[in-house]
Amino acid sequence: MNPDKSLNLTIDSRIISHLGEALIDNEKIALLELIKNASDADALNCSILIDTGYNSDFGKGRMVIEDDGNGMNPYIIENAFLKIATSFKKNNQKISPKFGRIAQGNKGIGRLALNQLGNHLKLWTKLDLEVIEKEKDLEKKYGEKDISRLIEKTKDTMYSFSINWKDYEKDDTKVEDIKLNLEYSEFVPKKFFSHRKSHGTRIEILGLKGLEFWKKNSIAKELENEVLAFINPYLDEKYNFKVSVNLDGNEFRSELNDKDFVKQTSFSQTHFNFVDGNEKKLFVKVIRNRKYFDSKVASIIKKMNSAYEFDLISTEKEIEEAFEYYQKELSKDERVIDLKSIQSIVNSDPSLKTENFLTFKNPNIEDKSNIDCLYLPGSFSGEIYAYSLASKETITEETRKKLNAILGIKLYRNNFMIYPYGNQSNDWLELGKYNQTQNSIIYKPHTTTGVVRIDGEKNLELLKELTNRQGLVQDNYGTNFLYLMRDIVFKVLARLEANFDDFFEIKNGKELYDYEEGAQCTFANLKFARRSKPIEDAKREVNKVRPTVVSLSEVANNSLFIEPEVATDIEKISKAFERFENSTSRFERQLETKNEQIKQQNDYFEELMPIIGSSIVSETLAHEILRLSVNVQRYCMEIRRRLEKNKDEVIKRSVMSIESDIKFLTRYTSILDTNSYSRRRRYEHCNLLETTKKFLETSPLFSYKNTDVILEVSGEEFETKMILDSYKIALENMVINSTYWLDKFNIDNPRFYIKFIPATRRIEIFDNGIGIDERVRDTLFEPFVTNKPLEEGRGMGLYIVKSLLEEFGATIALSSELNKYDNYYKFVIKFSGE
């Protein structure tokens, strides 16, 4: 028998690269991890320089991250920075020593962001001696008992080391076999750091792995809108942590929002607060500004005037009294929701949904039969601000511009954003869905901004972030927190707003059309009176004047004493009056005709209501499909990683097919989901001919039923700026339309042509079918125009094409050129000169 053998668990050095790719989702998230580290180190400033044109022995591109934080000594470098997945920060630096900041990271994987970003790094660091002097447990945190000795070692010393990540990608190499050299050098003030302080950390990354990522036209805008929004723009000035990013000469700086400006210009603001303790009470308070009342009153007066022909007759005093009532009774609303159990929520508000919450039986309650307690996070709070964009009189262009820059209700932990909650494409509170399925309220995705805070040590433990930093872990606490925000906080404020809107609603509007002249009604404590109808006024005046005109005519015809000139004038007046009377009668008949046309139009719209309803359902469904598509793509990515060494090609091809189909499905679904609109607005410079050929030559859309259509591309290439996804969807719609009709009419040798004409920056798209039916050619780009059977088309395809092209300044028109069937057949897309 062989003797027992002692074994070790070893780790191949390539695990560093694998972990970096798996745990850090993309370059942007990697950058955010480094910003977090700077904050955890008590930095006041963090600057990031990205130079995509820089050349070095390690490849193209350079990034420099510099902060004025606490810095490190050799003990921290070895036991914290260079030890992956260490609990050093969690155990020793949970609260930062200088500013008392709660540490953002505690998994010990943040430095893997450095591997994700580039091929080589060099780090320089200098310890802050002021921090050492305040520290009690020196040995545990700095590896040195004697403070004098520690100061003596570090006061004039800069530490540095380099890592070539390529060394960790070699075969048959263990992590521990790769040695790093820690260098000591004399620290010269105002030499090492651009911030000119005597402490901090500087990291230089060479050979950027995501060079093309940083070169994208859209990334600069993302850095401005998202990376710098990563720091809570509503935090107090005293927190004073600032970030600047310089990407190839374009510099962006984090800025604080003017909270007073947001409060004063918003129409409605909601404050909510849950304090973790025995009471378990959630407080929701809505405050409405005077501007909101002004907007509501202006809207009701305009509607009463234009839609129902009523005038406001309230006196100035009565109007003032109405506003006093609004201020007293409607300016504030409050609700308190008891979160101790499911039953206590129902008791607080029976209309709230509770079936989705995860619960447990409380062992401290004697009667456990009906006590379903919620898994509750620690304390959380926030503010949500809403605006009405309907009227230029109630909101200025400056406010609109500022609002567009801060749209979204963002989630922050200790003043750092948790992605993706609050991105303009992530409606995590489902504001859009509510406004589609319920009566519309002021809190909509495009009119709302705000902040949700989950600060504190308890939430650091309970509300965990996914390892790839793309959301909260959906365990008992993470799941319930999202339900609390969506189904409790938002639903409470939504119902308060719905009740408020109801007060300003014009009740029984159809009945107002039947009110007689002078009849009065009251809405929102304002009095209105039905004005006279112009046609009725005219008829009354005609009836008043007619006897006089008739009398004058009779006198003129029968009197011998009236001069001929006067008699002629009276005759002219009589004829003019007759013409006026006839015009009045004609106008009345035309009005009756118009009313009949309106009635027919209303009947037509009633027929369209099922389609409109289906569209709303489709948009909601599209939102869910997009969400699930992202999940499926993530699952496929994970499966592919696990299959790297698997030889089963059938499984690999199947996974790739799933990914391809999901991308195709996502692209089409995005057009139905208005909340994904901003995802498509990413401008790119494209070689149009090359892009189109590459896209269409692999398209499955040229086969329809039993027809295979041949693609023919001609002309010369030219560059243009566009939203690529929008262009692709537009092209796909054109192909789908052509293949349908080519198959329908059984065209021999079916062809789809695209001709590129750079001189006029246009492309021509046509097929060899019979062309456009003359019955629809004048309204071809309008919605719901089609000559397909109802079950095969809704007439939205070309309307969608036109809308998508207009997003980036392109136009589409039908050429007047005729084909051999004497029909219009050719579409011309013209691109802007940018």
TrEMBL record:
Any GO BP: phosphorelay signal transduction system
Keywords, ordered alphabetically: ATP-binding, Kinase, Nucleotide-binding, Transferase, Two-component regulatory system
Gene source species: Lactococcus lactis
Name of protein: histidine kinase
Enzyme Commission (EC) number: 2.7.13.3
Gene Ontology molecular function, alphabetical: ATP binding; protein histidine kinase activity
Catalytic activity: ATP + protein L-histidine = ADP + protein N-phospho-L-histidine
Entries under PROSITE patterns matching the protein: HIS_KIN
Transmembrane segments: none
Top-level taxon of the source organism: Bacteria
Pfam short name (any one): HATPase_c_3
